[in-house]
Amino acid sequence: MALVELRGVSKSFSKGDETITPLDNVDMDIESGEFVSLMGPSGTGKSTLLNLVSGIDRVDSGTITVAGTEVTKLSRSRLADWRAANLGYIFQTHNLIPVLTAYENVELPTLLLKLSSAQRRQRVELALEAVGLSDRADHYPRQLSGGQEQRVGIARAIVAHPKVVVADEPTGSLDTETSEQVQVLLQRLNKELDITMLIVTHDTDVAQIASRQLVLDRGKFLEKGDEGSMSSQPQPTPHLFQQ
Amino acid sequence: MIAYVLKTLWRHRTRTLLTVTGAAVAMFVFCFVGSVQEGLHRLTNGADADRSLIVFQENRFCPTSSRLPEDYSRKIKEVPGVRDVMPIQVWTNNCRASLDIVVFNGADPEQIQRSRPIKLTSGDWSQFKSQRDAAIVGRNVAQRRGLKTGDQFSIGEISVKVAGVFESTVPSEENLIYTSLAFLQYTRGLDAAGLVTQHEVMLTDDAEPDRVAAEIDEMLRSGSVATKTRRKGAFQASTLSDLVDLIGFAHWLGYACVGLVLSLVATTTVMSVQDRIKEYAVLQTIGVRPARAMRLVLAESTLLCLVGGVAGTMLALAALGIGGFAIGAEGATIAFRPSLGLAVSGTIVSLIVGVAAGLAPAIQAATVPIVNSLRQA
Description:
Helix content of chain B: 40-55%
Oligomer: heterodimer
Largest sheet of chain A: 6 strands, mixed
Strand content of chain B: 15-25%
Number of strands of chain A: 10
CATH topology of chain A: Rossmann fold
Number of domains of chain B: 2
Order of helices and strands of chain A: EEEHEEHEHHHEHEHEE
Helix content of chain A: 25-40%
Strand content of chain A: 25-35%
């Protein structure tokens, strides 16, 4: 059984008198450890699909099962619990909490799990180390560059050891050089931590780091890529990946 | 998560400070109004309010207009159920409602010491008993007027020497000045030799107050001056009737203060949540339950209200303790005293208002449409 299964998923929105159907009876499987990128023109339902998989949006019909849990059946509260334990979300605009330090931002998801303070501290330190920001732990988001903020966002997404990490245009607000660093980081997280990844992107370079590329148009998958070519080589392994 | 709440409040410290200050001022007024109501309640429902009677001249109100023969006390003592009678000459600087009323009670010093719940904090009884123009001064009056033992002070035609300062378990007593009966009777301008303003009647444990009061009035009907006898509590309530109405109205002011805190804290919390709708969407995306998001907002509003409310309550209690305020009319006074009850009610009201003020914004934060909110710039 695939880690992520979408069966007959449809989603429509009303816009004035018009009904838009970004997803129309979509099926999709993502295997454990896979790195899948999702591309397509604007407004074709890429982010909608990501949000449905994350359980922050609701399907009109169909089912979504992630790691054996049918998330489409869960209540809002149960979905929150499920996300805390199983899902990491990387936002395009980082969305760090401005009043919290990098350390505290990364610590947030661990506060929702049953962990001792020592376990929490260890996980946060390892996550920050993994994204190369141990020395910025006490910095507030306003004291970080865009790339550093995104790396803190990535650390926050992986700190709870989720089964799936989803990323919505993770490099969309970064310059080329920083974007490449983030791509390398995501690739390493997938390869070395075996985290299943689903990323939405407009950037073909970013899409190429995925092992499988999907293209979504008018509510359907148009094209399914095979094993994707890797655009970057993995970097030396930091502490987290040796665990 | 409490760090998140505290840091959020700190992030908008000007708004936080203004809200806390507003809540403090409103709760200050709430406690002040509460202390006036407590004072009135103590005065009209205190331990001696039902076990003492006041014999006053019929159809008279201001102490200066009630002139009863002093020897009525002898006749009153004969009524069954009467344990003791104390003739009192009352003099006040103002018959109308006033915040700085000075009330002299002239009575037998021995009887004062025996029957009044007062304790000298300075000075001594012997000087009060032996010196004709000696007076013992209630703590609140001494505080307001800056008097201490050994001082000489005058007010109107009366000039006395302070023989002591007393405190009392009955707060209104602390707004009185006691002199000897003879001193007040022979004060120039009073022309009250052989006359007193009222007789205070102490009852035996088994006496029925209204029956004794009726018997006293009936017995004195044949005397030179007709009387009206009432329970002390009822007498004081009647004496302060204008103020009672005013104080009854003032309790609406107390409610208004609570409403003010509610709207102030609710507005601040709503603004705070609306500013951070996206943040709550992010928190819920990370896995924060809606109920937890709700608790975060409630913690914020409750904290604002508690800090402001408790500060206002404490300031009010301090002001009441230091100021020794009282309001009086026609010789009766209502003391504004700090009390544990005020501290507890101020804190509980702050807590409840804090939770109530946070409810609407908390629901807003908990039910935030995650996807739409994440799209916000």
